[in-house]
Amino acid sequence: MDKFEPTHYTLRCVATGHEFTDHGWDLVDDECREPSLVRAVYEKKKLEVKEGLGFYRFCDWLPVKRMLKGSAAPVTFRSKGLAAHLGLENLYITLNGYSPAHGAGMTTCSFKETEAYSVCGRMSDDEKRVLVVASAGNTARAFAKVCSENNIRLLLSVPADNLDALWFEKPLNPCVKLIACEKGGDYFDAIRLSDMALQSPMFYAEGGAKNVARRDGMATTMLSAATPIGRIPDYYFQAVGSGTGAIAAWEANLRLIEDGSYGNNIAKLMVSQNAPFVPMYDAWRADSREMLPYETHRARRDASIIDAKVLSNRKPPYSIKGGLYDALKATNGDVLVVTNAQERKAARLFEELEGIDIHPAAAVATASLIKAVENGQVDKKATIMLNITGAGEKRFKAEHEIFQLQPEKIFPLNVEADAVVEAVEAMFSE
Q1: What is the chain's alpha carbon radius of gyration, rounded to the nearest angstrom?
Q2: CATH 3.40.50.1100 spans which residues of the chain?
Q3: Of 3, 14, 252, 289, which sits with the fewest C-beta atoms within 10 Å of its C-beta?
Q4: Looking at residue 400, what is its pLDDT?
């Protein structure tokens, strides 16, 4: 496309069905009186995949005003090694990461790139405020890459224990700044820190799961599977911290049904958590829409134990209308749980059979698939999609010089908001 035309869409409240115009960065329906997600309703009901545009090949169903440089789309291929090992006839792997042999070119090695390219594509190019993103690690790395390469001002908030995730193939543009909460804090503490920064009018929130651009960006994983397969999968496997990726897959599924070219199947969402950090598993097992009490000290301890640190969200969009609880109910899905030992074994097996190293969260999803097969929870003849949400990092680092992003400031867990605001405003006033 020589000249990109902004996508035409409206927003619809899941709770009420009220449809309204997006004013540019609407995260909720102001007329709705209960917590609810809003969805994008696209003018084009038939998906036209546009080759040669990287991630933006799916721009018909992305709420974007512009295309940014440097993007790559998820890649889906039919498994041979893992499928044969598990006795599965139609196992498809959706790869988000770095694997030249498979045409996978995400240089952050994470599917969080799908969020970043979509969210930043939704932004106006004349935005003067600073975007704020809180992250357990991978999301921060993806947004940092996209914002650095496209000169978008960005403030990241990450737990100090997860700073190792902030690696890059080249030094970043100084438009990207990083703050952290001290060691012992978790993702929730990083969110609290970012909320303090947002008290300044200089900054605005990315919005997390409430941002339709984040969800529809992640939805491209389902699109990248259904389009080459020619049908909607029967099962969808993914590890979840917030569950946003699974919500997005469900929403994409509904759009594919409306398209009419991929059947009317509803993919069964099979999501998994890393024990002992399992708040959504606990709520689901209790058949509770609301999250169960999770004492702060215990949550921080459990988050410190798990290998998949990115899955440590204490306040996920689970109970909200249109959130994970609704997605699981609508798809007859399930929440599974695997241990660190099972995750590590699955990572080794995947690399041995498929030739690609994978992130711990992706290994959690793989381990849950293995358990589901062993327990007879899946039909071995069914079409199964395994969302590998991060891969190829070991190879990428071996092939490239790596640079680490250092925090501008590390704050104590009991910091006051005024101190945070003063510090972050100074960072972007130079």
Answers
A1: 20
A2: 75-107+213-397, 130-201+401-430
A3: 3
A4: 96
**CB contact set of 342 (below 8 Å; sequence gap of 6+):** 367, 370, 371
> Alpha helices of 87-219 — where are they, by DSSP H?
112-122, 138-149, 187-197, 212-218
CATH 3.40.50.1100 for domain 75-107+213-397, yes or no, is yes
> Is residue 387 a contact partner of residue 94, using CB atoms and an 8 Å limit?
yes
| pLDDT recorded at residue 2 | 53
Whole-angstrom Cα distance, residue 73 to residue 94?
A: 10
- d(C-alpha 248, C-alpha 394), whole Å: 28
C-alpha span between 425 and 197 (Å, rounded)? 8
Give residue 136's pLDDT: 85
pLDDT of 3 above 80:
no
3-class state of residue 365 by DSSP: helix
3-state secondary structure of 81: helix
Please state the pTM of the whole predicted model. Answer: 0.95
Residue 76 pairs in a beta bridge with 94
- Alpha carbon 392 to chain centroid, angstroms: 17
The CATH number assigned to the domain with range 130-201+401-430 reads 3.40.50.1100
Q: What is the pLDDT of residues 70-88, one digit of tens each?
A: 999 999 999 999 999 999 9
